[in-house]
Design brief:
The chain is mainly alpha-helical. It has helices at 2-6, 9-21, 23-38, 48-61. Helices cover 61% and strands 0% of the residues. Helix 2 packs antiparallel against helix 3 (23-38). This is DNA-binding protein DDB_G0278111-like. It comes from Camelina sativa (False flax).
């Protein structure tokens, strides 16, 4: 209910499309938007462009770091 007042129609559609693929990510974005609105940081409707920047910020914060470690086995003839 509160999200419909905060988000523009294009932003709501984008979150709905994200929720089809990654429901946990959509829920996280909704939580961030709701917290910001409750703290008074959002004074106007969130446009699709602003939603995209929020998504990019969240993706950069939650990006997984991949680490590759190579363990070489010692052969019989190796010193």
């Amino acid at each position: 209910m509160m999200l419909s007042q905060i988000l523009s129609s294009q932003a709501r559609e984008r979150i709905a499309r994200i929720a089809l693929v990654k429901p946990e990510k959509a829920r996280g974005v909704e939580d961030v938007i709701l917290r910001a609105a409750q703290m008074g940081q959002i004074v106007e409707k969130v446009s699709e462009e602003r939603l995209i920047t929020l998504l990019e910020q969240i993706n950069s914060q939650t990006a997984k770091q991949t680490k590759v470690t190579i363990h070489r086995r010692c052969g019989v003839d190796d010193d």
